[in-house]
Amino acid sequence: MPFVLRNALCWALCWALCWALCWVCLSSGCCQVRPTTTNLGQCGSRLPCSFHFCLYLNLPTSYLGRDEKPSPPHHSYSFFFLAANSRHLSNSLPKCDSSTQRAIKLEKRLAGSRYRLSREVRSLLSALYCYHIGRLDIETLRGMIQLDSFRRSEIADTIRKCGRIMKAHPRQSDTSLAIIRMCLELHSITDERPPQQTFPIMRLPAEIRENVLRRVIANSFIEQLVPARDFDCGCPSHKEEHKFRTDETKALPTLLSTVLKDEYLHIFYRSKSFRFRCTCELLHYLSKEEFSRNVSSVSVHWCGGRSSEAFALLAKCPRLQSLEIGVSKSTNTFLSDRAKLLKEIFPSNYRANRIVDANGLEELLKIRGLKSARAVRVTKLYVMPEAVEAERSALHNMMKDRLTTPKGQ
Questions:
Q1: Which has more pLDDT, 28 or 144?
Q2: Domain boundaries in the chain?
Q3: In 3-state terms, what secondary structure has residue 222?
Q4: Which of 232, 246, 138, 140 has the alpha carbon at shortest distance from 189?
Q5: What confidence tens digit (pLDDT) does each residue in 322-351 have?
């Protein structure tokens, strides 16, 4: 027998044996490999080789119902959309060997005989497969459908066509149902709103976020802040006070996320000095846990009938480091309960009120652990008498000695 003829006969027998083994495997269902949409095989190219490629071209189990069991394909329609568009997939899928290419051509001849999908639908289903294996991003897939209304109508026509095929050929219901589910998945991907592209600031280290927030606060607020809301308590207010609250500073906390807002408030209360018109206003803000836990610097005009309550809460602030007490003639107007009782008993001794009888002095002197404590004059509000100035100076020295001692002493 000539060498050429013998060689050709050997090749023919080999190919016949290969196709026979492939057909037996597919028909008997002895090896049903149905990969998921995320794990596409164990080979290095993420696609199986040789005969296993034919078994691997079954539909992913995510397209089948939960109660459906994998069954042997009747006419190898399992992954028809890849086969029907093999030329389109040749540029998007990993390279396969020659036996794989012939298997795809066989699938193409079998699949196109009944479903006859349009070129647009084949392209979309192929793109969906590429999206599942990670070779196509969701934005590109969404744009392929949104930018062409004809493709959306083609998907709807394909769903109706598969419904008719399911009715006429019940044995092909699994494949038709899988096509419908893939088309519905394309619709759902198209209808999904793309996530807003925002800067992932929460992925930054805490030190960098703190530095960013400190710069934002420094550029948005002045150094010493006055509450913008009027607090009607009847106490005298400074005529020269200027409220500082623009639209930007008002909206800034609401524009931040919940977690970032907490970080912003912590840095805001710790980095700024807050000035209050009276102790009644100070008491109102100290009742807020977020403020009392983080405030570090306070300046308050000592006047008002609730000074003792305000100074008692001020002593419990864990991060308080600086305290400035403004003294004026109105400071001695509000007396403590003890001084009121003694004034009724000894009216001749209390013709002139003294700062030692002012409301809140005992609670003020109980504050400890400050780095800075002083008593200042409120000169622009009133002209202080000489006696009041002497009392202010004595209070300043007492605060400097006692309030700066460590806590617990």
A1: 144
A2: 17-191, 213-402
A3: coil
A4: 138
A5: 999 999 888 888 888 888 888 888 887 777
